[in-house]
Hints:
Layout: H1 7-13, H2 30-43, H3 47-56, H4 58-64, H5 75-88, H6 90-104, E1 113-121, H7 129-136, H8 150-154, E2 161-165, E3 168-180, E4 186-193, H9 202-205, E5 212-215, H10 222-231, E6 236-239, H11 251-264, H12 266-277, H13 288-312
Parallel strand pairs: 1-5, 5-6
Antiparallel strand pairs: 1-3, 2-3, 3-4
Helix pairs in contact: 2-13, 3-4, 3-5, 5-13, 6-13
Amino acid sequence: MNWTIFQPLLDKAKPNKTDAVKGGRPPLSNLMMFKVAILQELYGVANDSAEYQINDRLSWKRFLGLTLSDKAPDGTTIWLFREKLKDSGVYDDLFLLFNETMEKLGVITHKGSIVDASFVDVPRQRNTREENKTIKEGGVPEAWETEENAHMLAQKDLDAAWAKKNEEVHYGYKDHVLCDMDSKMIVDYRVTAANVHDSQVLMALMEEKYRALWADSAYTGIKTALWFEANIPHIQLNINEKGYRNNPLTCEQKENNREKSRIRARIEHVFGHISNSMGGMVIRCIGIERAECAIALKNLAYNLSRYVTLRRLNRAPSMA
Length: 320
């Protein structure tokens, strides 16, 4: 793995101070701090926990290039670095850079694409009905804006939303993902509140270079078909059909759905790996800006993990 490809973008997000007075502890490497953020997403650990794990695990120290006598960056330093990534927007550039590298190596082929979305939960907030009503209307409860409740407002997420699917209740955001059919790598993503329907983000994920698309029945509709006909007429659409009351699916439609699902199901492996091997689809931050940064790093960490798997299977060339 050639980690140095990320160095220019990281230095752009957090430039080294050249005019600082000499003395004191030298600044930590941006590349090392980026690796810490990737470790956090791969193992689902928070900032303070990451500090502990770095000091405790030789494998983490070796990965970060630290010696036995080197101290791990503390939780506050890790938080500040992630804030720099969020404020600069470089997290999206880092994600795109790795994808471009995979395209050059022939790992991402774009022969076919699969789209789906998954809930990303955040800690649930206990608000009154009146407070929730005000938030849904785009406002802020008056009691939260008083000086004595400033600390309360700082801990309230006004961007997250509630959603219910298959009797499961979620609070937080959605990770709308487009993945490559061959490599099962995430090629694009969008982050919205949890109550945004999957189909509303589909057009934002599409580009003319995509040749075929697989999706579940949530993406059906005349509006979707007309948009593709007007913007990407050459694309092959493999979207599962949906049955309606008094108009159920025929046996032929059910068989067609099964055939489409054999390909479409590959994106479930992506979410399954994140849920079972990377600490789950859960983040611990406030506001959609931090959520976008955290989800982008999680998607990038998945792609890095997937690249390692493809290398182990001799299905991807080396980056060296």
